[in-house]
Amino acid sequence: MLLAQDITSQIPLVSSTRAQRGSRSPLGSNTKSASPEGPRLGPPGLEGTAVRPEVQYSRTQIKPGSDELHLDRQRRFKLQETAGQLLPEFRVSFCGRRRRRAVDEIKIMKGDDGAAYASGVQRCGSVWVCEACSRRIAAARRLETITALAQWRSQGGHVSMMTLTLPHKREHKLKHVLLALSDCTSYLNSGKRALSALLKPYGYFGQIRALEVTNGLNGWHPHLHVLVLHRLPIPYGVQDVLKARWEAAAIRHHWAPPGWSVGLSWQDGTAAADYVNKSGTWGLAEEVSQSHLKQAGRGGRSPHQLLLAATLGDKKAGALFAEFGHAFKGKRQLFWSAGLKAHFGLGDVSDEEIADSEDAPVEAEPLAVIPADKWALVCKYRQRAELLRAAECDGDAQVTVDFMLSWLFDRHLESIRRVA
Ligand SMILES: [Zn+2]
C-alpha cells in the first residue's frame, strides 16, 4: 500500500503546458516582484539575445482514474480542508469548493494530463497554506526558474547559491524571526556596500530569492535560498566579506550579539552549476521554487509536515501551522531582481493567476456538468475526489456522475429524515 508521503514524491505537480498556458490568465507583467536592488537590465549585449530554450525535465505521470491518483486527491483535499479549519478566515477555507460568482453550474473538465478537475470554483492562490494551489504555483515557478537558469548558463553566466539564516530560540515567535530575516536581507541588499555593489566586479546580474521555513527543536527557522547570477567567477575571499556583512546586519538589527555565528553559506559557481546539471529531479530550480513543499530534515518539520500531523490529530502541530499561516500571509515565496524575468523572456504572473488558470481550452467540452446545488452536496459530504474519479471512468462520464449525484442526494435526504 502506498503511504501518503510516498505518493507526494511521485505525483506530477502540474504539467508544463498548464503552467505556461493559463488560458484564462495569460502570463502578464507583475511589478510586485521587482526588487529595488540590483541593476536595471536593458536590451543591449546578451540581454537582447534571449531565446527560450526547450526545457526538459522528468516527471512521473499518474494515470487518470487510477487508485494512486484517487488516493492523492483524497489526501490533497483532506489537507486543504484541515488548513481551512485551522485558518477559517483564510480563502483556503473554501478553495476549490465555493463556486464563482455568476456561475450556476460546475463543469468537470479534462486537464492536459487527462485528469479531471472542477471548473467554475474559486481558488485561494496561496503558495503557503493550500495543498492544491501551492502545487500548481510551485510547478509554474519551477519552470520559470529552469528556463532562466538554462538561458543564463547558455550565455556563459555563472550561478552561485547563498543561504541566509539567523540564530533563533524556541521561544521566538515566527513573525519576529521573519521580520529580523527581512530586515537583515534588506540591509544586505542596500547601500554602498550592497551585495550587488560588492559583486559588481564579477558581473553581478541579479538574484532569485526563495523563502522557506521549518520548525524544530530550536523553534522556527525561516531562511532564504538565494540564486546569484554573475558573469565571472567569484574569488573565495569575497564570501568572507559577505559573511561579515550579514553578521553586521544581525548586530545592527539587535538579533545577534557580536561573535555569534549567523549563517551565510555560499556555494560557488562550480558547485552550484553541478547542482543545476544534476539529471535527477532536484536541482537549483527545485531548491528555490519547491523547497517549501519538501520534507524538512534534521528533526525539523516543514509546514507541509505540520499540516499532515494536524490532519492526523496533532493539535500542537495544528497550532504551529496556524501561526505559520498568519506569519506568512502575503509574503512572497519567490522574489526576482528587477528586470530579471524580462531578460529571460518570462512574463510576470501572480500566484493567484497561476492558481486560477485552466488546463482545458475555453472551447473544450466538459466531461460532465453539475448544478450548483448538487456541487454543494458534493463538497458537504467530502466527495470531490470520488466525483472526479467517476468523471474519469470509461464510458459516458455524465451518466456516471449523475448516478453518483443521485446516490448522494438520497444520502442527503436520509440524513435530513434522521434529524427530523
Ligand atoms: Zn487554494
List the helices and strands and how they pair.
Layout: H1 4-10, H2 16-21, H3 67-86, E1 105-110, E2 116-119, H4 131-154, E3 158-165, H5 174-188, H6 195-198, E4 204-216, E5 219-230, H7 236-252, E6 263-267, H8 269-277, H9 284-289, H10 303-311, H11 315-328, E7 334-336, H12 340-343, H13 351-356, E8 368-371, H14 372-380, H15 384-391, H16 397-419
Helix pairs in contact: 3-10, 3-15, 5-7, 10-11
The structure holds zinc ion.
Residues 92, 95, 123-124, 126, 130, 132-133, 355 line the site of zinc ion (ZN).
Largest sheet: 5 strands, antiparallel
Q: Name the bound molecules.
A: zinc ion
Rounded average pLDDT = 80
Q: What level of helicity do the residues show? A: 40-55%
Shape, please?
A: elongated
Indicate the structural class: alpha+beta
Oligomer: single chain
The main sheet orders its strands as 6-3-5-4-7
Q: What's the order of the H and E elements?
A: HHHEEHEHHEEHEHHHHEHHEHHH
Number of structural units classed as domains:
2
Distance between the termini: 41 Å
